[in-house]
Queue: 3 jobs
Job 1
Amino acid sequence: MQRFTYPVTLTPDEKEGGFVVTCRDVPEVVTQGETIDDAISEAEGALEAAIEMRIEDGMDIPVPSARKRGEHLAALPVGTAMKAALHVSMQEQNVSKAELARRLGLDEKETRRMLDPKHGTKVPALERALHALGKRVELVVV
């Protein structure tokens, strides 16, 4: 099972006010917010940008650690989480974009676009691609 909700630490900024946000699983996530809600919202934006960069660069996407006492959770938007799941599944199974395109009956350009974090790929297309890799999508609302 793949999850894309990461624990983040909010540290009060004594000098400037608000909170500094960090994520131990994705160290490039560093941001800030004036309130707790604002800080978590900023964390989710920074997390999305970091995961998108990792997908674009073909890097690993870390598995989220268990939340520790005092940590908050930051989640990826559904579309980005599905692209991350597709990226991780392709890496785990050593499936290239060309092979995924063949399985889906698409050309490789369409598959590249599907994996492009900046392209607004529709959820059903991502779900179909994940199914082609033997994965099932389940949405959990907490």
Job 2
Amino acid sequence: MFPFLKLTDGTITLRPFEFGEEKELHGAIHESLPELTPWMSWASEKYSIETARNFIAITRGQWSSGMLYAFAIADAVTGELVGGCSLSHIHPVYYFCNLGYWVRSSRHGEGIAGAAAKLAARFGFERAGLIRAEIVVAVGNDSSKRVAEKIGAHYEGILLNRMVVGQSIHDAHMFSLLPSDFGLDAHL
């Protein structure tokens, strides 16, 4: 649907993952495994360059379906891959999605995740016709929770048994962003 899209705030750029950057994606993930593994099912030592290559191919293919928008987060100046952000589990009837984000460990503390989340949510509201973006954060994932709080996401409470990561069941904090948070009207 938007395969050549680039969104930027001047500091970071969101864009589809590019064919040929699987080694860079693999490196960013492996650098960040200590922070990612407790919270992301896909983050493990088994994450290979082939896994990254397949992820890129699958997510690029999903753009046209309108059911998943997986963005690479890149440094707007250097182009360095600094993380990922996605709008996933897009509901075709109720027009909401899950908004997820991760940033490589060496770039933590720069506000990248929050900036990416806001750019992705705005894209969802303006271009994908969404009326709600949900940020679901496992209880204990304090870094991700702080991101949602810093960007002004609405806190809606704790959902019991909401997430499974590996073999662990987690309760989760529910946050949301709405079009009105960006001065936009919700439209169907």
Job 3
Amino acid sequence: MRLVCPSCGATASAEAWSNDAAIRYTIDALLQLPTPVRLQALSYLGLFRQGTKALPWRRALKIVTGLKDLVAEGTVYWQGGETRPINAEIWGKAIEATLASGPKGLKNHNYLRKCAWEMAADLAAKMENDRELSRRNKQRHEEPRVMPESAKAEIDKLKKQWGE
């Protein structure tokens, strides 16, 4: 019996799907992806097909491993912009947006990274606001500084000298 992957077009016998190491490793890597990414990953793999050719499993493994590494970083960078924090939910939405735009024959994850970087702007702004609020609150709650007695004496001396 021959099985065909509906997303990437890879074909193989049922035995090959369980015996081939590249297939097992690819499935294992897919299962390690966070849920929002995993739900979109097979469809995303389909974008890497070249024309009507099936996507080889070794290539699929490389793509999924690269995707797993991107998601695990926790940040995303795009061409000269700042590095932005990102989470699995945004990666999932970025894959969804990539799928919706429908590019075919992708060679790498750059298109996805660009979409993710643009979507991560809101998260980066929120995190910066939280950091700033935390910094302000910390300053408000700090103990007031006590002026040393020697400084007080020096100020009193200057006041007398200037005639106050």
